[in-house]
Amino acid sequence: MSLSFDPASPNFRSGHFIAGEFVADEPQMAMHRPSDGAEFAGCPIADADTVDRAVRAAGQALKQSGWGTCRPRERTNALLKWADLIETNAEDLARLETVPSTRLISQTFAGDIAVTAEQIRFFAELADKEGGDVVPTASSQLGLIVTEPYGVVGAITPWNFPISMAGWKLAPALAAGNAVVLKPSELTPFSTLRMAELSVAAGIPEGLVNIVLGDGPVTGNALTGHPNIAKVSFTGSTRAGSAIMANIARTGIKPMTLELGGKSPQIVFADADVALAADCISRSILFNGGQACVAGSRIIVHASIAEALIKALKEKTVGLLPGPAWKEETTYSPIISQTQRTRIQGLVDAAVGDGAEVMFGGQPLDRPGYFYAPTLLTNVNQQSTAIREEIFGPVMTLQTFETDEEAFALADHPTYGLAAGLYTRDMGRALKSLNAIEAGTIWINRYGRSRDHILPTGGYKSSGIGKDLGREAYQANRRSKSVLIDL
At what angle do helices 72-88 and 113-126 cross, to 10 degrees? Predict the structure, then answer.
């Protein structure tokens, strides 16, 4: 069976999903397919009244359903059914995901949808296994730490992995007993809307999952600043995360989880397997057209093997097949928009102006859609635009080192600390390196997450606050109170 399909075939519903129903709203933003630039749909912008309607619906559903106070296993069972329905509707979801986004149908159908279902099952099984504690006190007393849900969680997800990011936000919040109002990216909302519809079919009470469509300045601000939103969870750029923090500070105090930008280094030591390193590095930057917050875009390689690594990296770009995301044979993703591709070119040009040398790439691909060539820049220093700025595209920089200390100094970034990669055959060196690198995730002789959802993700410095995935994400959706009883 071929996965290729007609991009006009999915049902792109324009509206919000509130209290278990689709709410029609007039599209205000034209939407274009990254694969060919064609306009295909429109997105409404939820105003403050629409956001308030969704938040009130979430609060009412939480009270009426008893979702936060029921036996935790009841939440587990409903979430497991939801995961099953997501897998059953994988083809429909994959098509809704693929057309407006940079995600290829071969990856969404076999990867993103399955991973989302796995994530939901992971958090579903935590619901009746994570709880409070009995703590040591005097024998005449009983000390307890009791946990409970926050109430209504406000979530915002990015455009680069729409459905799996929705899973990151919805699954732990619901498993922990909360209701959610989620704003997906205005560029890629359709798979999230369908996912919400399936939650009701699975038996999750209407109103616990609400989706409002819109942009950041209007819809996002109304959501994060709403007085009845008890917690905020956001994945996106550091700039947008800073704006959310400021908005929350203006309108009140509430906890937040922020998974933000990155400029992740990959250190290749002299004893590394060059072929392995080249394979991991190329996949990390070519996957999804380099549009991932953990993209390992800064290569730091020992001078003795730099030439061999550059040659191997260039070879990895041969044979890539750019094309429509809805064609099964396509292997290389477009950039999300013309605006973003223009931004990438501007940053590359600025780096060249700073003295960088283009080893390969450095320009858009001459074809329909918003494609950009895999690019490697050398002769860069720590002040270069290409080192300082998150490019969010298939652009790598390469710097060389002689000593381990020099490598760690180059790896350190003044702004970001999301992830890092290390390549060496010496595990002693690798383990010693862990303390020298400020990053929330470090991969050794590999680059990228596995499907072990127990491992949390989150950054240091301006790459974020708190964690997604793992027990930490579940715990971040519950608050604790201390109880002391005199017996």
Answer: 170
Residue 251 has a pLDDT of 87
SS percent in the chain: helix, strand, coil, step 5: 40, 20, 40
Task: Quickly tell me which residue has 């979801």 as its tokens.
Answer: 93
Q: Which helix (H) or strand (E) holds 183?
A: strand 179-183
Q: Is 148 a catalytic residue?
A: no
Instruction: Give the closest residue to 117 by CA, choosing from 471, 451, 480.
Output: 451
Classify the phi-psi angles of 270: left when phi > 0, otherwise alpha if psi is within -120 to 50, otherwise beta.
alpha
Query: Which residues contact residue 148 at a Cβ distance below 8 angstroms, ignoring those fewer than 6 apart?
Result: 68, 177, 478, 479, 480, 481
Q: Two tokens at 433?
A: 């390196």
- Are 402 and 256 in contact, with CB atoms under 8 Å apart? no
Catalytic-labelled residue, pool 118, 186, 259, 390: 259
Per-residue pLDDT for 1 more than 80?
Answer: no
Strands 478-486, 141-149: pairing kind = antiparallel
Nearest-angstrom CA–CA distance, 420 and 294: 8
Kindly give, in sequence order, each residue whose CB lies less than 8 Å from that of residue 190, ignoring residues fewer than 6 positions away: 10, 12, 13, 41, 96, 97, 99, 100
Q: How far is CA 201 from the centre of its chain?
A: 26
Percent with pLDDT over 70 in the chain: 100
Taking CA atoms, 429 is separated from 199, 267, 420, 436, 439, in Å, by 47, 12, 15, 11, 17
CB 327 within 8 A of CB 7: no
- Asked if 413 and 384 touch (Cβ cutoff 8 Å), the reply is no
CA distances to 159, 359, 365, 371, 450 from 341, rounded to whole Å, are: 15, 19, 10, 7, 29
- Structural domains in the chain, sorted by start: 15-260+464-486 (3.40.605.10), 265-452 (3.40.309.10)
* DSSP H stretches of helix in 323-438: 338-353, 385-388, 404-411, 427-434
pLDDT in tens, 5-42: 999 999 998 899 999 999 999 999 999 999 999 999 99
